[in-house]
Structure formats: structure tokens, C-alpha cells
């Protein structure tokens, strides 16, 4: 521990001129002059004491800062720098960047653009798309014929999945066989099933699924972040399903 002792400053002695003036033969002038010079000497003494105290305070701060730095303690210094204000992001630049990336990934025609700035995403799409109250965005490329699928029925469909960059992430066409799923069994993500349940056989639709209607995110899932997903869906057929029971065995058969 460092101890600092205060330095005593002796009062400055009266000058020879002061003494000589105080010893003048005129009493009234002697008292006036002595009082003036003594006051001046006291004022100079006070100013010197203030200077010494200020120097001691600076010295004490320097010793304290040296002790903190040598002991490994990081002192907190006041910050007077300017805080960087968040300016509106350049949507035009981000839009052109997204278009360039989609072009490199061979995204299909009239593919929606996504302007992402941090956690906020803006979807830029043509007038062909319709946004529902749930946040789902649809575009009916071709409307089919017949009835829409109901809960419990099985649907057979092809699909291609894309991410925001227009990169293909999955395709039943490349797998060589369509997908078959029973409606109303939670086998599909909410946004995909919502976009599929009012399609008709032979119809083709592009579905833009927002993160809140998308798949769960985690290390055990295919998706690793909250992003928009785009699906091109072609509904092939709808089959009725019945439950079949043989002895202790029971299953569902769809024709």
C-alpha cells in the first residue's frame, strides 16, 4: 500500500520593502501599507497552497493508476466518444446483392427476393403473390381441377425446396418418386400443409413459408436458422384412406 504525506509549505517571509514601508514614520500610512502588503502575502500563500494540493492530487492519482496497472486490475475510464447511430440500411444495395446470389444459384424465374438486415427480413415479390393473414405467401402458377384434400386423405405431390438465396435444398424430382403424406397428421410443417390443403390435383403453386410457420430449428433438425423457405409444389392426386384391422394388426390403407 502506498502512503502519501502532505507537503507543508512555509509562509513566504515579508520582503524587505514591506518591512521598510511598515517602519515609515507616518502612522496612518504605515498601517495602510502594512495591511495591503500582508494581505498580498497571504493571498500568494493561499494560491501556492492550492497549487501544491492540486499537484498532490495528481500525484496520488498517478500512483493509484500505476498500482492498478501493475496489479492486473483494469481501471474503468470514462468514455466520451460518439456513439455510432444506426442508419437505415441500403435496401437497394441489399436487393441487388440478393439478386446476384440467386442468379449464381440458378433460382427459378420470378423468384422472391429477401432483404435481410440482422434479424429483420423484407420479402420483395411480384404482384402474382398473395399474402395471407397467417403470413404465408402464395402464387398459383397453375390451378388444378377437382376437390381439395381433406383431413385424413393422402396427397401425392412433387416439390422443390429453396432457401432465401435461391439454392435448392431438396427435390422429389431428383429423388425419382413423389412424396405421399396424409393430411391432418402433423407430418408437414404448418406453412407447407396450409399451402397444400386448398390445392387441386394438377395444380402448381409456389409457397413462401415464413419462419413462424416453418420447421423447428435445432441441431437435430435439417434447418439451422430461422429463415424463409420457398417450395414449388405440384399436386398429383388425392386418395381416400380407411383403417384396416386383421386380428391384432391394424393399419391405414389409401386407394
Low-confidence runs (pLDDT<50, min 5 residues)? 1-25, 27-36, 79-87
C-alpha geometry: elongated
Rg, rounded, reads: 43 Å
Number of strands: 11
- What's the helix count? 5
What does this structure look like?
With 255 residues, this protein is of the alpha+beta class. 30% of the residues lie in helices and 25% in strands. The protein has helices at residues 16-22, 27-70, 91-104, 172-175, 190-196; strands spanning 113-117, 120-124, 130-131, 137-142, 154-162, 168-171, 179-182, 204-209, 229-239, 241-246, 249-254. It has five helices and eleven strands, in the order αααββββββαβαββββ. It is elongated and about 110 Å long. α1 (16-22) runs antiparallel to α2 (27-70). The N and C termini lie far apart (90 Å).
Topology:
Blueprint: H1 16-22, H2 27-70, H3 91-104, E1 113-117, E2 120-124, E3 130-131, E4 137-142, E5 154-162, E6 168-171, H4 172-175, E7 179-182, H5 190-196, E8 204-209, E9 229-239, E10 241-246, E11 249-254
Antiparallel strand pairs: 1-2, 3-4, 4-8, 5-6, 5-7, 5-9, 8-9, 10-11
Give a quick rundown of the structure.
This protein is α+β, with helices and mostly antiparallel strands and 255 residues long. 30% of the residues lie in helices and 25% in strands.
Q: Any key phrases for this structure?
A:
disordered N terminus, alpha+beta, single chain, 255 residues, elongated, 5 helices
Amino acid at each position: 500500500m502506498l502512503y502519501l504525506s502532505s507537503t507543508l509549505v512555509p509562509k513566504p517571509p515579508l520582503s524587505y520593502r514591506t518591512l521598510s514601508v511598515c517602519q515609515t514614520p507616518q502612522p496612518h500610512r504605515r498601517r495602510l501599507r502594512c495591511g495591503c502588503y500582508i494581505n498580498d502575502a497571504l493571498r500568494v500563500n493561499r494560491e501556492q497552497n492550492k497549487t501544491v494540493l492540486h499537484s498532490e492530487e495528481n500525484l496520488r492519482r498517478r500512483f493509484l493508476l500505476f498500482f492498478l496497472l501493475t496489479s492486473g486490475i483494469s481501471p474503468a475510464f470514462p468514455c466520451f466518444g460518439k456513439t455510432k447511430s444506426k442508419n437505415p440500411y441500403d435496401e437497394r444495395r441489399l436487393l441487388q446483392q440478393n439478386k446476384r446470389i440467386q442468379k449464381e444459384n440458378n433460382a427459378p424465374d420470378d423468384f422472391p427476393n429477401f432483404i435481410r438486415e440482422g434479424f429483420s427480413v423484407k420479402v420483395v415479390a411480384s404482384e402474382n403473390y398473395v399474402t395471407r393473414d397467417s403470413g404465408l405467401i402464395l402464387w398459383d402458377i397453375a390451378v388444378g381441377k377437382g376437390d381439395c384434400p381433406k383431413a385424413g386423405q393422402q396427397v401425392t405431390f412433387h416439390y422443390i425446396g429453396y432457401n432465401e438465396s435461391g439454392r435448392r435444398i431438396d427435390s422429389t424430382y431428383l429423388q425419382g418418386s413423389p412424396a405421399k403424406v396424409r393430411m391432418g397428421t402433423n407430418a408437414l410443417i404448418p406453412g407447407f400443409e396450409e399451402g397444400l390443403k386448398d390445392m387441386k390435383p394438377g395444380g402448381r403453386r409456389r409457397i413462401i413459408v415464413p419462419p413462424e410457420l416453418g420447421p423447428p430449428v435445432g441441431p437435430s433438425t435439417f434447418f439451422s436458422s430461422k429463415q424463409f423457405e420457398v417450395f414449388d409444389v405440384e399436386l398429383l392426386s388425392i386418395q381416400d384412406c380407411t383403417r384396416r384391422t386383421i386380428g391384432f394388426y391394424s393399419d391405414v390403407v389409401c386407394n
